[in-house]
Amino acid sequence: MSTKDEYVASMKHQLDVWSAEIDSLEAKADDIREDAKEKYAQQLAALRVKRDEGEKKLEEMKEASESTWEQVKVEAEKAWAALKDSVQTFHSHYKA
What we know:
Helices cover 80% and strands 0% of the residues. By secondary structure, it is an all-alpha fold. The chain has one domain (4-94).
């Protein structure tokens, strides 16, 4: 990405994709075995926390000045990587 606006738009799109995935996983909770529902719900809650952190970083990126942009971008990329890993781990564990 060459500009801040393009980068923010790309991150917003990815966050929307992950949010839709989390919503889809939440909808599948009723199909989980009774003994696994609590663990599933806890992991969904953790995904929502990471998504919320991603949304917060997105807002920080939007508001970042030119002087703070690079630092905010680095922090946002860490939050994005954590969210991506969490979503992938959840999918692989539950084969959702």
